[in-house]
Design goal:
Elements: E1 6-16, E2 19-28, E3 31-36, E4 46-49, E5 54-57, E6 59-64, H1 77-86, E7 89-94, H2 105-118, E8 122-125, E9 127-128, H3 134-138, E10 148-152, H4 164-173, E11 178-182, H5 185-195, H6 207-210, H7 213-230, E12 234-236, E13 258-263, H8 264-268, H9 274-277, H10 290-302, E14 307-309, H11 317-320, H12 337-346, H13 352-367, E15 383-387, E16 392-393, E17 412-413, E18 416-422, E19 425-429, E20 433-434
Parallel strand pairs: 1-4, 1-5, 6-7, 7-8, 9-10, 10-11, 11-12, 12-13, 13-14
Antiparallel strand pairs: 1-2, 2-3, 5-15, 15-18, 16-17, 18-19, 19-20
Length: 448
């Protein structure tokens, strides 16, 4: 006979919908069934004393690169989702630049099958746009596919979409959310040529000069223009410059057709960190200047930036230890992303309510994710228990990524992730580490 497992969180500081309330939360199997004070302990199989700790809805990371299929020497759906749950990320949406690239519905569904077997967090996958796969894009199902990724510059192979007629067709026809990487290849090429007039080779310090605010703005403004022309649903990923913020409206996310995102590393690092971190923080778009970082944090408060994600993109340590121009762009982030945001909270740069809004509520609203992103009765129990007064020291040795290094190595964060639940199942605890559970994770479903 089927036994229902009942877990009860007592006296948790529940962060939900702009409030922090000390209350109890009852979970039956995969679903939250009660959020109220003084739920009797006798009703539960397991009671968790959460006194003094925050209980957050799990982070929904709408931008990761988990490297499977074809690039599994850098990471896999299994390895990177393990690191994600240890970092309090309970759902993710993964990108198409794997090998072969995810540019057909068949390749897309093949990735869902891999995740069904091996993912520890809930999952969805983007189809990659090319200049000639419009028929595949039109076949996407708004209820079961998260979106279509368009690299408008700054990509390789057939995932680069620059031809105006191809872009217009995608913005006109896509039945799902369009997410974009916006950097102009033409501007980057001109900037590079200019820098090389006065030196023989580029170094990491040139990265934000070559991939400057003009390169970003030229492309993101074009995307916004196309979205307005065709009334498309557009989400511009990883905004890095103060200049681009003028393209986005402030105010709540509900009803917005055009939204923007910032990533944790652009809220943390600046060009001043290249001296010590070098190629470790080489990413596209580039980590830029302290003034840009400050403007992004300000834009979180004005709600011009709607979502915070990671753009987790692991490479091996060896791949990063080469001259700047040959080094791949991207860094591993999912294990420590939430901790960086809690550090901003500790320093008074944002509130814990804002962290939950930007990492859980807003991704759920923007993508129409069914019954996730909130601590509410009837919602799936994707939960993270956080000690806001804890301590987490990061080393390359305790990084759970397959690549075995972290750009935060040497940092000590003033919070810790105590435990993570995916659909009511404990998948990570500080004491026991990551638990390989029997398929607690689910495919994300969308109400749209």
């Amino acid at each position: 006979m089927f036994h229902m497992t009942v877990t009860l969180f007592k006296n948790a500081l529940v962060v939900n919908e702009g409030q922090v309330l000390e209350t109890d939360v009852k979970v039956e199997n995969s679903v939250i069934t009660q959020v109220k004070k003084h739920i009797p302990e006798t009703q539960a199989d397991e009671v968790i004393d959460a006194k003094g700790c925050y209980l957050l809805p799990g982070m929904i990371d709408d931008q990761v690169h988990f490297r499977e299929p074809g690039l599994t020497h850098k990471g896999s759906i299994a390895s990177e989702s393990r690191a994600a749950v240890a970092g309090g990320i309970t759902s993710y949406m993964e990108m198409p630049n794997v090998n072969p690239a995810t540019t057909t519905i068949k390749a897309l569904e093949d990735k869902f099958e891999i995740a069904e077997q091996s993912s520890l967090a809930n999952y969805s996958f983007y189809l990659g746009a090319t200049e000639d796969n419009l028929e595949e894009i039109k076949r996407l199902d708004p209820t079961s596919h998260c979106g279509v990724k368009v690299f408008m510059g700054a990509s390789t192979g057939n995932l680069l979409v620059e031809r105006p007629d191809a872009l217009e067709a995608i913005f006109r026809e896509a039945p799902v959310l369009i997410v974009t990487h916006c950097e102009s290849g033409d501007v980057i090429a001109k900037n590079k040529a200019k820098v090389l007039e006065s030196k023989s080779q580029l170094t990491i310090d040139d990265h934000p000069i070559v991939r400057d605010d003009e390169a970003c703005y030229a492309s993101s403004s074009y995307a916004v223009t196309l979205a307005k022309k065709y009334q498309s649903d557009l989400h511009v990923l990883h905004i890095t410059t103060e200049k681009e913020l003028a393209l986005f409206e402030s105010g709540p996310i509900e009803g917005k057709k055009i939204t923007a995102e910032a990533c944790v590393h652009h809220l943390w690092f600046s060009n001043e960190d290249y001296a010590t971190r070098g190629n470790e923080i080489k990413c596209n778009p580039a980590v830029k200047y302290p003034s840009d970082r400050d403007a992004l944090i300000k834009a979180l408060h004005s709600n011009q930036i709607d979502i915070i994600a990671t753009d987790h993109a692991p490479h091996t340590w060896e791949e990063k230890q080469v001259p700047y121009e040959q080094a791949p762009a991207g860094l591993p982030l999912v294990q420590h992303a939430l901790l960086t945001l809690l550090e901003h909270v500790n320093k008074g740069k944002m509130t814990i309510e804002q962290v939950v809004e930007k990492t859980a509520h807003n991704p759920a609203i923007r993508y129409g994710i069914e019954k996730r992103g909130y601590i509410k009765e009837g919602y799936f129990a994707d939960l993270v228990l956080v000690d806001g007064k804890g301590s987490t020291h990061v080393t390359n040795e305790n990084a759970l990524y397959y690549c075995e290094w972290s750009p935060f190595a040497g940092e000590t964060f003033s919070a810790s992730i105590k435990a993570t639940w995916v659909n009511g199942t404990l998948v990570y605890s500080e004491k026991q580490g990551v638990m390989d559970t029997s398929n607690a994770a689910m495919r994300l479903v969308f109400n749209r």
